[in-house]
Amino acid sequence: xxxxxxxxxxxxxxxxxxxxxxxxxxxxxQTLPVAKNIYMLEGAGGNIGVSxxxxxxxxxxxxxxxxxxxxxxxxxxxxxxxLRFLLNTHHHGDHTGGNAVFGAKEATIxxxxxxxxxxxxxxxxxxxxxPVITFDHSASVHFNGEExxxxxxxxxxxxxxxxxxxxxxxxxxxxxxxxxxxFPFIDLNSGGSVxxxxxxxxxxxxxxxxxxxxxxxxxxLATVEDLKAFHAMLVETSGLVKKSLADGKSLxxxxxxxxxxxxxxxGTGFINTDRWIETLCNDAKKTEP
Length: 289
Ligand SMILES: [Zn+2]
Fold this sequence. Notes:
The protein has a seven-stranded mixed sheet.
């Protein structure tokens, strides 16, 4: 778990040349049943959601291109047949790295419009990696006996995030709008927003049934209680940093003071406490009138 958290930040800032040299040989894909016909796959990068059934397979996110064959094998083991749809929760490479492989092979890729815009703006993106169907606010895929809703709530982790709700199975894939048990990475350079991020989490909490299963972008399969704890952390830590800034404290002073002990474990993985404080301060500077 920790190793997986630690892999991600490095990956986000690696060039594709460095990525190509990264060794994925030892990564194994773990398959976890979530609810009904929905599964979660873990390997390296963002967690994958899968719907299997008589209509075929649908996948949410696809980690890295060098893992595509292993991911494909895990899918075939669950349900031999065609991967009909691939949904991207956002554009980051640890969630869309396999797009070129699955897009070229058979899958129709669906994502929010800004995902396509950002992928298309990257000179390294192949045409096959780009979403074929895009939407601004919401879309639904009627598949394997249920409505699978994609909802964009505005700027959050990036400017192109979708929350994906398997309405029949009562499962929600949050993408990187949820780091279970950790401080989140919020990509301010890709249109992300701390206020928007928190608002999206609050909106999801208002809407989903209390017994829903939640697939986070990173971290273990979660419950609504886990998402509530994450939301409480976001509200409290962002409030504290905002108050310190209003009191005239500098970034260094805020970092030295740190955050309350109860959030310490959130800083042991992907984003440490200092980096989370930096994100909150940078965001505050950006949104200052
Ligand atoms: Zn991300």
